[in-house]
Amino acid sequence: MLDKIIKFSLHNRLLVISFAALILSYGSYVIVKLPVDVFPNLNKPKVTIITESHGFAPEEVETLVTIPLETAMIGTTGVTRVRSSSGMGISIIHVEFEWGTDQFLNRQLVNEKIQSIQNRLPEDVSPVLTPITSIMGEIQFLGLESPEGEVDLLELRTLADWTLRPQILSIPGVSNVVIIGGGLKQFQIKIDPEKLRKKNISLDVLMENVKHLSENTTGGFVDKKQKEFLIRIMGRAMSQEDLMESIVGLHLGVPVKLKDVANVVISHQPKRGDGSINGKNAVVLTIQKQPEASTIEVTKKIDELAEKIKKQLPKGVVLKSDLFKQSHFIENSINNVQEALRDGAIMVAIILFLFLLNLRSTFITLT
């Protein structure tokens, strides 16, 4: 059999060489386009629903939120499996679809099901769909800290939310940026019950009035001399002073300001967990990539952006881009394969020469 193959190859040299060149060309094309990642994306198309219900115990979350959503998802077209988990104040549901289904169509179907049962969910509870991300999870961590404590953690979190996150999301291949630590800045109104009683204002009335303290509304428009003038009512509070000077009620015909019954402070919302770098409180940004994006290429673009951002940061703020990189694992794995191929080729060449004792035959065999 081997003799026949050799004879056929010798008599049809042009055909064999052409076939080998074709395979070589195709192989080169495949290598250039071959995606490089930690694992192949073997997961079925999946849509994840996250629902926050603050203050609910896991039992209530499961009964009032998870079960209605889960029941609605089971009947969705193309769904093969639904998994859920309920915790304190949060519900997470994973909806898996058949192979080959369109991810965007799947998300639309899930959204329609959510809308159909929205009235069965508790008040102020709104399910949201997570962005389309790769199964590899976070590909890189960025850290924002102030080593000397010159910049407050609240300011670091604000910087991460409003400056860093939008720029990172603009990078092709990035699907989501989750920020941990620092705490979300809030204007917190701390009511004094005794002052409230003296002003004869109920808590319900105060809460209702406070809801509308920081709003811009329209006043319509006015026609004057064949011109139309838009009327704006500027009521948005921009500082503590704006809130404290706001009117929240009347007492004996005299306007009552918020500062008369409460104190306004700037603080962070209650935390459940925090971020740290080397044991010190800091803000950590975790970056997730899109399913078909290259981890190595996306990481390079993130590093380039990080270098530009470092030059724009306020004094005392340090951005660390090397807390964790999934690309390091990929690059090390590729280097290991290259070393193994190199060492293996050398050993094979030596063994062939020892057996054949002919440089020409060894070269032909290696080729």
How would you portray this structure in words?
By secondary structure, this protein is an alpha+beta fold. The chain has 12 helices and 16 strands. It has a 4-stranded antiparallel beta sheet with strand order 2-3-1-4. The protein has a 4-stranded antiparallel beta sheet with strand order 6-15-5-16. Strands 7-12 form a two-stranded antiparallel ribbon. Strand 10 and strand 11 form a beta hairpin. Helix 11 runs antiparallel to helix 12 (359-366). The longest helix is centred in the C-terminal third of the chain and has 31 residues, at 326-356. The radius of gyration is 32 Å and the shape is elongated. The mean pLDDT is 89.
Structural key phrases:
12 helices; 367 residues; 27% strand; single chain; elongated; alpha+beta; four-stranded antiparallel sheet
Shape: elongated
Structural class: alpha+beta
| Topology pattern, helix = H, strand = E | HHEHEEHEEHEEHHEEHEEHEEEEHEHH
The oligomeric status of these chains comes to: single chain
Cα separation of the termini? 22 Å
Q: Total number of β-strand segments?
A: 16
**Widest beta sheet: strand line-up:** 2-3-1-4
Most strands sheet = 4 strands, antiparallel
Strand proportion: 25-35%
Give the helix tally: 12
Task: Summarize this structure briefly.
It contains twelve helices and 16 strands. With 367 residues, the chain is an alpha+beta fold.
Question: Could you outline the blueprint of secondary structure elements for this entry?
Answer:
Elements: H1 2-11, H2 13-33, E1 46-52, H3 58-74, E2 79-87, E3 90-97, H4 103-116, E4 128-129, E5 138-145, H5 153-169, E6 174-180, E7 185-191, H6 193-198, H7 203-211, E8 217-224, E9 227-233, H8 240-244, E10 247-251, E11 254-257, H9 258-261, E12 262-268, E13 276-277, E14 280-281, E15 283-289, H10 295-310, E16 318-325, H11 326-356, H12 359-366
Antiparallel strand pairs: 1-3, 1-4, 2-3, 5-15, 5-16, 6-15, 7-12, 8-9, 10-11, 13-14
Helix pairs in contact: 11-12
